[in-house]
Write a structure and sequence with these properties.
There is one protein chain. By secondary structure, the protein is α+β, with helices and mostly antiparallel strands. It folds into 2 domains: about 130 residues, Alpha-Beta Barrel (N-terminal domain of MutM-like DNA repair proteins), CATH 3.20.190.10; about 120 residues, Orthogonal Bundle (Helicase, Ruva Protein, domain 3). The chain is about 25% helix and about 20% strand. It is built from 7 helices and 10 strands. The protein has a 4-stranded antiparallel β-sheet. Strand 3 and strand 4 form a beta hairpin. Helix 1 runs parallel beside helix 7 and helix 6 packs across helix 7.
């Protein structure tokens, strides 16, 4: 599932490709991709619209148009939002929507699992998108700090569950929570309230560093994720624990273990991330 680094990379790679372009045609090939809009109204409202800029909030992409409406896209598990310079490029089997531009090329939303969503609405109605409206602070913003994180983790829930909660922090998912906790040397099952001040500071630094490194590497491509220009990410080559159960820890050679936390697989080093439950 694309997380903050992947969605940020899609934004950054699409901006030079589609900003300033005007939409000549809009096709919705999978109507359920529009949970709050009717297909005919949506396509009519998108035609002749110019993309002014693209923003990101958590795992959502927000396209500012030359109208009072915002185009909001959530990639969810397998969504790809890729610009094709040539309209003649074969249409992928799982294409949900296509935005064609007057001066050439198309922006295509391809989603194999079909969980991705698209919304078109005025800024004043964004609260209708519950997952967007309730997002916590952006972990790479000036508003996020070690002090804010201290308040966020004060809970009896596992620290992994807290970091995955989009209402607490926006954008972190399963891959990066595992990597963040490994670098901070914190066991994923530890209650957030058990963390000491120094550990929270280490966790804060780890969150910022891992996300920045992942964005610089254009995200993690394990299977479906692609950048806005169709490339693969590279951070999968730098993962230290995620998906590596049974392999040696790069720090101490102890075998990486996998467990379930809140229904999600979690990878950790039992030596580097020790937790004395007593």
């Amino acid at each position: 599932m694309p997380e903050l680094p992947e969605v940020e990379t899609v934004k950054q790679t699409l901006i030079p490709l589609v900003v300033g372009k005007r939409i000549s045609e809009c096709q919705v090939l999978y109507p359920r991709v529009l949970p709050k809009n009717h297909v005919n109204e949506f396509t009519a409202d998108m035609i002749n619209r110019k993309i002014i800029t693209i923003c990101r909030r958590g795992k959502y992409l927000l396209f500012l148009l030359d109208s009072k409406l915002l185009l909001v896209i959530h990639l969810r598990m397998t969504g790809q939002l890729v610009f094709y310079p040539e309209k003649s490029a074969p249409l992928a089997k799982h294409t949900s929507a296509v935005f064609t531009f007057y001066d050439g090329g198309e922006l295509r939303f391809v989603d194999q699992r079909k969980f991705g969503t698209i919304y078109l609405m005025p800024d004043s109605q964004l609260h209708i998108i519950s997952g967007l409206y309730t997002l916590g602070p952006e972990p790479l913003s000036k508003e996020f700090s070690s002090e804010i994180l201290t308040k966020i983790v004060k809970s009896g829930r596992s620290i992994k569950s807290i970091l995955l909660d989009q209402k607490k922090i926006a954008g972190l998912g399963n891959i990066y929570t595992d990597e963040v906790l490994y670098r901070a040397r914190i066991h994923p099952k530890r209650p957030g309230s058990s963390l000491e001040t120094a550990e929270i500071s280490a966790l804060y630094r780890s969150i910022v560093t891992v996300l920045q490194e992942a964005i610089a590497a254009k995200g993690t491509t394990i299977k479906d994720y692609r950048t806005g220009d169709g490339d693969r990410g590279n951070f999968q080559n730098k993962l230290q624990v995620y998906g590596k159960s049974g392999e040696a820890c790069p720090t101490c050679n102890t075998l990486i273990q996998k467990t379930k936390i809140s229904g999600r697989s979690s990878h950790f080093c039992p030596n580097c991330q020790r937790w004395d439950k007593s």
